[in-house]
Amino acid sequence: MTRTVETTPYDDQKPGTSGLRKKVPVFQQKNYAENFIQSIFDALEGFAGKELVIGGDGRYFNREVIQIAIRMAAANGFGRVVVGKGGILSTPAASHLIRKRKAFGGIILSASHNPGGPHEDFGIKYNADNGGPAPEKLTDAIFANTRKISSYRIADFDPVDIDTIATTEAGGMTVEIVDPVTDYAALMESLFDFDAIRRMFAGGFRMRFDAMHAVTGPYAKEILENRLGAPDGTARNYHPLPDFGGHHPDPNLVHAKHLYDEMMGPDAPDFGAASDGDGDRNLIIGKGIFITPSDSLAMLAANAHLAPGYQDGLKGIARSMPTSGAADRVAEKMGVGMYETPTGWKFFGNLLDAGMATICGEESAGTGSDHVREKDGLWAVLLWLNILAVRGESAKDIVTKHWTTYGRNYYSRHDYEEVATDRANALVGELRAKLDALPGTRVRGMTIAAADDFAYHDPVDGSVSEHQGIRILFEGGSRVVLRLSGTGTSGATLRLYVERYEPDPARHDIDTQEALADLIGAADDIAGIRGHTGRDAPSVIT
Ligand code: G16
Fold first, then answer.
1. Which of 105, 40, 99, 42 is nearest to 79 (CA)?
2. Measured from the CB, is residue 95 less than 6 Å from ligand 1?
3. How confident is the model over 484-528, as pLDDT tens digits?
4. Among 95, 425, 503, 530, which residue carries the largest CB count within 10 Å?
């Protein structure tokens, strides 16, 4: 039986950088998840009888919302839902399933790298038929619907058994429970030289992969250990837990410090990696060297032709605006297009669909390619393994040779988390107001060459996205960027991105914060970060 339930709108359901993210108790309010899911469906057209992919990263409240989504999909007229067993689907695996099965779209339940648990974060996002995050036009329509919703449709049937692989019928709709790993693992096998990687492991290559008790555990176990023959124990913390074991599933130097310490220690394995809550981010650490996401993007792009899936070369490279310019130098040398987009994977979708870019990346630990329409943590790890296997050199050697060829982009991000929203807005507002006056002024011995509030003109569909972050460029190519995060769930997070280009190999081993000290000071002089936030230091430095 299908019911129409009357409801009233919530005014806080504006999707952020990737979907709607809130604390679990917010999502547990009456009709909150239902309102948002109905608002998604109401923003779509032509899905009657079509297929919808549903899955999540296994966090607290995942299973409950999966049941709601299945019942609402049936009531709204979908013909079939495809659900990852146990409610599990990594974000890139969901993207692949949508594409492979030519589904109408997918609902992914995740708050990515944010913590999980009864008082932590939850999220819902919608991916379109290209497998990518809903474009801005669609998220705007969803938000508009949340403001005027008056009812939602839901079917009444017993909870579906999502723990058994089977195809059943519920509410007049077909429900197919699939293994979350199989199709994804096959895709990886089609892109990378598994034989070469297998030989490398067989030859004693040691690796550590930390799944952080999040979604990539089963994927890493199957691909790294079962298919590539890495020793048992290579994948750690591989059972997805609703609260991620009480940890923050964010693969950075703060939350994966144990991995960093191990990789810098005397008995370090050859290669270390980690992924986040929903499996789309990656952390890459070579023996004795951390590789920044911006550098990793450049190095993966420069060496991608060593993997079978990319042997014909790249069509182009894309990076988000705050990501360092290291990849630009690779694109220039290759003679391929380089695209600078706003933060948010959704902005890569058009470039990938149009065949203008093959590899994309972001400073926020996201790298991916045209194989899916999401960033993909394990993909990045496997491409690194493929490159290491073919080149037969250490990660550290590959990095230092890359810097010698292209120069080094010193790069760091400083996050000020949970800043009062009005204070953060005041900082950005004041900075915006003085942008025009900045060029030509001198700060800490450096001259500002240009300053603007980044606006993106999509070369494919002509859409314009404004206010995507403030860029202050100095003569000589250094820059600082300031923007407010679109993924936080309490207060505002101010991000300061700092970058300096150093061509001279004799100056490639300076401590990063030291190399950037003047720029960090200049950013504070210009934007008044300490004054506005009331903080002496950032919450997180990566
Ligand atoms: C999301 C987006 C990314 C973006 C990141 C950081 O990642 O998918 O494209 O770079 O947020 O955004 P912000 O700086 O606004 O917090 P994820 O992994 O959270 O889905």
1. 105
2. no
3. 998 777 789 999 999 999 999 999 999 999 999 999 999 999 999
4. 95
Atom of ligand 1 nearest to the CA of 346: 9
- Ligand 1 atom closest to residue 374's alpha carbon, by position in its atom list: 8
- Compute the distance between CA of residue 55 and CA of residue 61 in angstroms, rounded to an integer: 12
Q: For residue 282, give the amino acid letter.
A: N
Pocket test for ligand 1, best of 21, 112, 125, 343 (most atoms within 8 A of CB): 343
| Ligand 1 centroid – CA 364 distance (Å) | 7
State the Cα–Cα distance between residues 66 and 87, nearest whole angstrom: 7
Question: What integer pLDDT is reported at residue 356 of this predicted model?
Answer: 98
* Catalytic machinery residues: 112
Q: Please state which of the four CATH numbers 3.50.50.60, 1.10.10.10, 1.10.357.10, 3.40.120.10 is assigned to the domain occupying 183-406.
A: 3.40.120.10
The HSE-up count of residue 80 (CA atoms within 13 Å, CB side) is: 14
Could you report the per-residue pLDDT of 24-68, keeping only the tens digit for each?
999 999 999 999 999 999 999 999 999 999 999 999 999 999 999
User: Which CATH code, of 1.10.1060.10, 3.40.120.10, 3.40.50.300, 3.10.180.10, is assigned to 2-178?
Assistant: 3.40.120.10
- Domain spans of the chain, in order of start: 2-178, 183-406, 408-541
pTM of the model: 0.95
